[in-house]
Amino acid sequence: MRDEIGCSILLITHSLGLVARYCDLVAVIYAGEIVERGAVADVVRHPAHPYTADLFTCDVEIDAPRANPPLAQSFQVIRGELPALRDLPKGCIYAPRCAHAVADCTAAHPDLRPLAGKPGQEARCILTP
Ligand code: SF4
User: Fold this and answer.
1) Which atom number of ligand 1 is nearest to the Cα of residue 102?
2) Digit-coded pLDDT (tens) for 97-106
3) Where are the alpha helices (DSSP H) in 33-82?
4) Which of 16, 47, 57, 65 could be disulfide-bonded to 53 (CB atoms 3.0-4.6 Å)?
């Protein structure tokens, strides 16, 4: 349809498997803010933000074909819960759920920054180069 009528299509989904299959560009949003964006091929190959990487580990679309033992046993979830949007954590809002969090993560809210050596890909994480 996009090619036939020359339009853009915005797909909003929790499934990065669908994004990988159908999209050119992706913006990964956590608790209302973009934490990573870039070309799908780049983000799928090298997810720069821990939330993006965590999403890949719990994506049914991606996990189903390689699930052995069966999917119910291999399916993963991200620990913790989404924060209340009226009471966001200080600093990085993903810090309470992030397995890579360090003390500096709660000091200041990280900006969305371009990744070194990866044109067009940006991430909101103090640990990304
Ligand atoms: S800034 Fe820290 S807590 Fe936030 S995603 Fe990066 S490593 Fe995790």
Assistant:
1) 2
2) 999 999 999 9
3) 40-45, 50-57, 60-63, 71-74
4) 47
**Whole-number Å distance between alpha carbons of 123 and 27:** 10
Residues with CB under 6 A from ligand 1: 49-50, 92, 94-95, 98, 100-101, 105, 110, 125-127
- For the segment 10-64, what is each residue's pLDDT rounded down to a tens digit? 999 988 888 888 999 999 999 999 999 999 999 999 999 999 999 888 866 554 5
Q: Tokens 């339009």 — which residue?
A: 7
Return the ligand 1 atom nearest residue 126 CA. 1
**Considering the entire predicted model, what is its pTM?**
0.86
Which residue of 52, 127, 128 sits with most ligand 1 atoms within 8 Å of its CB, as the best mutation to test the pocket?
Answer: 127
Residues 2-123: name the CATH superfamily.
P-loop containing nucleotide triphosphate hydrolases (3.40.50.300)
For the CA of 49, the closest atom of ligand 1 is 5
Residue 125 vs residues 8, 24, 48, 74, 120: alpha-carbon distances, Å: 29, 23, 8, 28, 16
